[in-house]
Amino acid sequence: xxxxxxxxxxxxxxxxxxxxxxxxxxxxxxxxxxxxxxxxxxxxxxxxxxxxxxxxxxxxxxxxxxxxxxxxxxxxxxxxxxxxxxxxxxxxxxxxxxxxxxxxxxxxxxxxxxxxxxxxxxxxxxxxxxxxxxxxxxxxxxxxxxxxxxxxxxxxxxxxxxxxxxxxxxxxxxxxxxxxxxxxxxxxxxxxxxxxxxxxxxxxxxxxxxxxxxxxxxxxxxxxxxxxxxxxxxxxxxxxxxxxxxxxxxxxxxxx
Length: 256
Known about the structure:
Blueprint: H1 6-11, E1 19-24, E2 30-38, H2 42-45, E3 47-52, E4 57-62, E5 79-82, E6 85-89, H3 93-102, H4 107-111, E7 126-131, E8 137-145, E9 148-159, E10 166-171, E11 188-191, H5 196-206, E12 212-221, E13 227-233
């Protein structure tokens, strides 16, 4: 599979939906994680990412609680950390993976208890990834069989020896549509920039300006295990008590 320019791919895709990118920095010393959400409806757009420091991650919350309609598929914990394992997903399966790993289950075993989202006719796929202490990572997509809401297909992708300067990207949708077509094939292989700042900025600036909602990026130092996060929110939370996200303390010179 040829490497793509992920920024160009996103710039030319009006609606990939929600997306996960995992990559090893060109120097081989750091791992980058990116997760973004987009929205077409007012309810989907009425969201922000908020830090969840007690669980090493983030949660989604309504930007304006008074306008929140159905929270079932849009309010969840996209990122959690279990020891030195970083979990990122597009739904409440983050907690399924976290709880399963606490009981000794594998990433795949935990996800075999789940299926795609019950939002026919789209049947939105559940996408997930875990990054381990040594930089190895796994990704997954749980999707319907060509739009058949009675049949789930579970795909798992294992990257035990990541390549410096490369990463993989998976999203819920292939492109915009009605119904929206699910992502197809293996995660896309892409060239990774030098810093997490460039990584995050490239993703955020190339998402469709009308449909993008929030972006989370994390840098993990493979030697120390320390990590730092960045959050971009298009909308401001009405609740002024929401904590402002802190910039990563890790390697601040890399954030320029």
